[in-house]
Amino acid sequence: MKTPVPTCLQKGFTLIELLITCAVLLILFGIGIPGFGSIIDSNQQVAAINQFSTSLAHARYYAVTNNRHVILCPSTDLQTCTGGMDWEYGVISFLDDNRNRLRDANEEVIAINQAIDRSIDIQTSIGRKKIHYWPSGSAPGSNVTFRFCTDSSNVKRKALIISNSGRVRLSENLPDGSEITCN
């Protein structure tokens, strides 16, 4: 009696199975990758908001604890105020001993914050090119709104609003309740 010859089971994929698997993976990556872009943009926006609110809190804290006038302003060279309404290139805080709202040679810079990411635009409302903290912690003048804008249409625009008392709050709308717009 002959012993049966064992049949070998072939292991592997057929060409059709491989093509179907590749097609499914391409569809999943096509759907998933744009979502990652929105997550990255959202995280960059949150990081910019956190860094900026930290700069505001530090300037206010320094003014109160040291009984001094502190100015926070946008700066491209991180030494002098640029005077514009775009804050995304960098921010400096300095002591304003003579209260002229300009950084003079003898006035100390107390903090320098470089931009985190150039894809986030930080724009202020008209009329407030600098934030002046008094020793009481107040920031007199009109309330100021800082808009944080990205190029991504999938990321909700946010704003930091500073009241005259110097307090900061985060909002998804402008103070009048309207949608945040960017220039």
Description:
The protein is an alpha+beta fold and 183 residues long. It has one domain: minor pseudopilin epsh domain (minor pseudopilin epsh fold, 3-Layer(bab) Sandwich). Helix content is 28%, strand content 21%. It has one helix at 15-66, and strands spanning 70-74, 90-95, 109-114, 121-124, 131-133, 144-149, 158-162, 168-171. The strands form two sheets. A four-stranded antiparallel beta sheet has the order 3-2-1-5, with helices on one face. A four-stranded antiparallel beta sheet has the order 4-6-7-8, with helices on one face.
Instruction: Enumerate how many helices there are, as a single number.
Output: 1
| Overall tally of domains | 1
Largest sheet: 4 strands, antiparallel
| Helical percentage | 25-40%
Stretches where pLDDT is under 50 for at least 5 consecutive residues are none
CATH class membership: Alpha Beta
The CATH superfamily appears as minor pseudopilin epsh domain
Structural class: alpha+beta
Outline: elongated
Strand neighbour order, sheet with most strands: 3-2-1-5
Strand elements, count: 8
